[in-house]
């Protein structure tokens, strides 16, 4: 089958969503499918390359001509409306590659929607977050779980988040384009039941199936030059967080919890900086190691050497692959109770779930695991057993079946 993946970012730009798209694409190629990826071009990256049999096209967007729109020039996001240059580039790729399925993963799908009827392909959209109903993607309102969208409510919330110039157009365009998307998509694939509920798919007439993120079966054996990365890690045992360094992932909550620990091992943070990290970094406790933009093979080795995984997200984290990575390396997890994490972490069995934003509860859960090495070991072994349900050999055949269905 000929499949065209749409993802605004793709490795070497690193993140859970990007890793998912790459893993799915290479796994499908290994299973005999013909896979092309269209992603956004960024400075220093090739416009076309072959990645383990996957043809990767990096296309330019009109929005990239206005760099002041983006707080991070290394991550120029797809806009919540059809971008003319992206749409034209997609048309050229479709003519050349002749896909049967377009599988989109974020707002880049909006630039494809004007081509849907012309192309004659079937459209599948994996929902990695709540972008179908929330212009911020997070489903958070005043730092708490939003009870539901409202037009003036969303305008105020997005304006506060993006600023006046970007906030109003983002809400308006996402509202219009999500209506178009609902009518054009042949199958939605929310990555967790929490996303299906958050995007109002449950109880609707829209076609959807919950398909979780996954990790490659051989992820624990990834190869690469580890020496420059391992030299940055502490020599002794350490606690580990992997993810975006910002409030949404609960890094500020984690730092407060860590500051309350006595005789604690080092805390390692691996990820890319969000705009609010500079504020958090001012009060960063001693013995915290901040490591930026590691490749996945190095992250896996960091999990292997760690004591436990910390996932203190304050938002409804959809289905974090970092939890699966830690489980694959036999590590217990202390995570927030919410979103897709409740599907991944069994409280009291593979780790502990705590109330989002509660630094005291997070601190107490960490202290309990630090005080009981045997408990860490038991929970790590339980995590190893549970993660088998989230391996590629289990999940990808379900996606193939959906391709055949549509």
Describe the structure.
It contains 16 helices and 15 strands. The protein has helices spanning 16-30, 84-97, 109-112, 116-119, 151-162, 164-184, 193-198, 227-230, 251-259, 277-282, 296-305, 321-328, 341-344, 359-371, 373-386, 392-405; strands spanning 2-6, 34-40, 48-51, 54-59, 101-104, 122-127, 140-141, 144-145, 187-190, 239-242, 267-271, 288-292, 308-311, 333-336, 351-354. The protein folds into two domains: 2-214 and 392-405, Glycogen Phosphorylase B (Rossmann fold, 3-Layer(aba) Sandwich), CATH 3.40.50; 219-390, 3-Layer(aba) Sandwich (Rossmann fold), CATH 3.40.50. With 406 residues, the chain is of the alpha/beta class. The model has no long low-confidence stretch (mean pLDDT 92). Helix 5 crosses helix 6 and helix 9 crosses helix 14. Strands 3-4-2-1-5-6-9 form a seven-stranded mixed β-sheet, sandwiched between helices. A six-stranded parallel β-sheet has the order 12-11-10-13-14-15, with helices on both faces. Helix 13 links the parallel strand 14 and strand 15 (351-354). 39% of the residues lie in helices and 16% in strands.
């Amino acid at each position: 089958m000929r499949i065209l993946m749409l993802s605004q970012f793709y490795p070497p730009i690193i993140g859970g969503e990007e890793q998912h798209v790459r893993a799915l694409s290479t796994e499908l190629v290994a299973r005999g499918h013909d896979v092309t990826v269209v992603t956004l071009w960024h400075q220093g990256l090739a416009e076309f390359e072959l990645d383990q049999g996957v043809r990767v096209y990096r296309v330019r967007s009109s929005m990239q001509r206005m760099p002041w729109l983006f707080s991070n020039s290394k991550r120029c996001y797809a806009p919540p409306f059809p971008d003319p240059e992206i749409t034209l580039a997609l048309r050229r790729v479709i003519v050349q590659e002749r896909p049967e399925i377009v599988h989109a993963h974020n707002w880049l799908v909006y630039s494809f929607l004007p081509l849907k009827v012309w192309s004659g392909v079937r459209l599948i959209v994996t929902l990695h977050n709540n972008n179908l109903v929330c212009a911020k993607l997070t489903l958070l309102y005043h730092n708490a779980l939003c009870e539901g969208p409202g037009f003036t409510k969303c305008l105020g919330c997005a304006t506060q988040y993006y600023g006046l110039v970007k906030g109003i157009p983002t809400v308006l365009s996402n509202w219009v384009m999500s209506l178009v998307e609902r009518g054009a998509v042949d199958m939605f694939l929310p990555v967790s039941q929490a996303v299906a509920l958050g995007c109002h798919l449950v109880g609707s007439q829209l076609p959807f199936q919950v398909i979780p993120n996954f990790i490659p079966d051989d992820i624990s054996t990834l190869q690469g030059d580890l020496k420059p990365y391992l030299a940055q890690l502490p020599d002794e045992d350490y606690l580990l967080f992997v993810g975006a360094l910002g409030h949404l992932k609960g890094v500020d909550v984690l730092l407060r919890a860590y500051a309350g620990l006595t005789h604690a091992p080092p805390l390692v943070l691996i990820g890319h900086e969000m705009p609010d990290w500079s504020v958090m970094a001012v009060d960063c406790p001693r013995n915290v190691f901040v490591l930026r933009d590691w490749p996945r093979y190095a992250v896996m080795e960091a999990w292997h050497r760690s004591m436990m995984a910390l996932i203190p997200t304050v938002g409804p984290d959809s289905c974090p692959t970092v939890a699966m990575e830690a489980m694959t390396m036999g590590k217990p997890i202390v995570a927030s109770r919410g979103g897709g994490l409740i599907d991944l972490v069994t409280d009291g069995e593979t780790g502990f779930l705590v109330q989002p934003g509660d630094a005291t509860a997070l601190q107490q859960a960490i202290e309990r695991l630090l005080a009981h090495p045997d408990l860490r070991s038991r929970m790590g072994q339980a995590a190893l057993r549970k993660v088998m349900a989230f391996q590629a050999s289990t999940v990808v055949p379900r996606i193939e079946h959906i391709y055949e269905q549509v």
